[in-house]
Structure formats: C-alpha cells, structure tokens
Amino acid sequence: MNRKKYRPSLIAATVYFNYFVWGSSILIVSQYSQQFMRLWNTNVKGISTVISMVGIGHLVTVIFAGWMSDRFGRRNTMVIGLIANIIFLMGLILSRNVYMACFFTLFLGAANSFDDSGAYPALTEAFPTKAASMNSLVKACMSLSQTLLPFVVAAVSSVSIVLPIMSVLLFLDVIAIFMIKFNKDRLDPVEATEPVKVKEDQSVETEKPVKGNLPKMSIDGVGLIIIGFTISFTFYMYSQYIPHFGTTVLNLSEAASKELVSWYALSSLISVFITSVVIRKAQPYHVMMLYSAIAGLFLVLMITFPSYLLVRITSIVIGFFAAGGIWQVGLTIISQYFPDKKGKVTGYYSFAAALTYFVGPFVSTFIIDDTAQSMIHVFAIDATVTVAGVAVMLFLFFRCHKYHFIHEK
Hints:
By secondary structure, this protein is mostly helical. The protein has 17 helices and no strands. It is a multi-pass membrane protein.
C-alpha cells in the first residue's frame, strides 16, 4: 500500500530530475561556447550551426516518439530520451570538429521528443486531478536549472568535468525509473491537462461549442500553431544568443554575459507560478497579447538603446513574459478548441515549437559573426517574430468571442 501511495510522487521526481538536467543541456553549448570553439576549431557561426541541430533532431523524432509512448509505454519512452541526452553530452566531449558535434546534437533534439512524449502523459496519468499544476512544474525545474547553470560554469571552468557529471546524473535517473512501476493506461484524450478550466459545475456538454460556432482548424488552429512558433522563437533565441550579445555589443566579460541567462531563467521560474494564477482569472488571449507585447517592446528597446542595465531588465522581462508559461496557455486553447483531436493538435503545436530550435539558429548562421551589428540583426529578427505573433493573437482574439465555452470563468 505504501508503495502504491508514494508511486506517483516517485514518478514525478524522476520526471522533474530529468528536466532539471535537460534544462542545462539545452544551454550547455552556448554557455561553454569559447571552449567548444577551440575544441572543434570553429567560430560563432559553427556554434550556431551546432545549436540548430537540436531542432532537426526534435523535428524528425517528435511524431514517432508520440507513437512510441502509446505503443511501448511512458517509462520506456522516457528512458530512450534519457539515453539520447547522455549520448549528446558525451558526444560533445568526443567531437573534434563541427560535423561530429552536429551529429551528436541531433540526439539532444531526439531526447526532447521522447522526454515530452513520455513524461507529460506519465504525469497526467499519475496525477489525473492535478495534471495542470504537475505539468507546469516541468518548466519550473528547467528554469531553476538554467538559473544555476551560469554559476556552475563560473565555478567549474572545464566542460570536460561538467558533461560527465551530468551524464552520470541522467544514468542514475534511468536506474530510478526502472525501479518504479508506471501506469499502463494511455493518456485520456478528453481529460484537461492545462491550467485553463471550465467551472466544475458545468456538464461535459457545455464544454463543447454549439453547432455553428466551431473553431476552424484552417484559421484558428493554424493561427494558434503559428503562435506556438512565435512564442518559442522569442525565448529560445534570446536564451541562446544573449551571452554573445553581451560580449560583442556591450563589451562585457564572458562571466557577466552568462549571468544574463540567470536573470532570464530566474524570472521565468517565478513566472511559472504567477502565470498559473493569472490565467485562471483573466481571458487567455488577453494574457498572451499583453505578455508578448511587453516582450516585443523590450526587445526593440534593447536593440535600439543597448546598455547593461536595459539588457538585464530585458532578460528579466523575456524570462517572465515569454518563457514563463504563455506557450502552455496557447496549448490549452488549441486543446479545448479541438477536444476530439487533442493528441493531433498538440503534436502540431509542439512541432511548431520544435521548428524554432532549427529555424532560429539556422537563419542566424547567415547573419552572425563577431561584430556587434550582426548581433543587433539577430535580435531584430527575434523582435520582428515576436511582434508578428502579437498580430496573430489579436486576429484570433476578435474571432474567439463566439467560442464562449473556452473563455467563460
């Protein structure tokens, strides 16, 4: 009985620990970029190319990973993700050129696909009445890890020490996962797994739109998928390139530039909890538009009037208003718009986010170099995509009033 009682908590612990390490994995190349440049005999363009491979690895495995999760179980899928992450980490040490590094970085993208496909359903099945809050803590664990990473980099200068330690931690998580019995049930496609909820006294029928007021996949669905891309683009590009912005544009030391990521990550950690409360009291599109507009405004200010103080403030703003939970708000809306196709639209929405991991760094390789102006151009693209996302949100907001089943509090 005790094992059954604590089993959900143990499942959650393995999931959160996995994402804690993964949060550092996604930034490890940019945080130790100088060492990797020497190790791989490359420059900042080469580093950007390596980072873009995360997106390709994610894109080519995301659909297959979802099938694996339903067919072979959540635990096995998570283990595949953990092993892929270990291959990535150890492969970075073994790589002696950009081509090898690109190959091993594909495994980090694959790890993201298998982790998401196994972990989120596992949490939902372990905590069917608390799925939204339990899933939101995944982002909190990643933000906490990214907050601490710059301090680890400052304390441990050698990446050859950090990567094996991270690999060992992931291997221990694999062992822990095999010691826990996961639920065998598949994810219930009707069960709400996100923060936005209808009133508890409403019947199942009232959760669905009346005939004639159905959201259209070709308009509302596509628009929300675009939003999934723009939101991810905003915070992913910022987290990857803000250290280089600090060194080239502001002439900061490498340590001071990397601390900007800590401001970003700490702010996103705080936002996870605040946004989960705000979204229960406010109209979802209002929250997304306000958050994205603020993020876009500060990106424009940062590239127009670059200063150390403004960049620090922008790091806090992007962390809170872009990386702290509004992506999940969009996922909530598209899941409720198309309840009978929740798995499919969730896959599309996640696919759009995965696309940013490739498109952003890949486009940057044609622009970026060691000059300040090139970094201004990179962040100008980030700001443009963010503003475009706000425009799409505004368009969908004017359409959403007919879908009262989504937005009534």
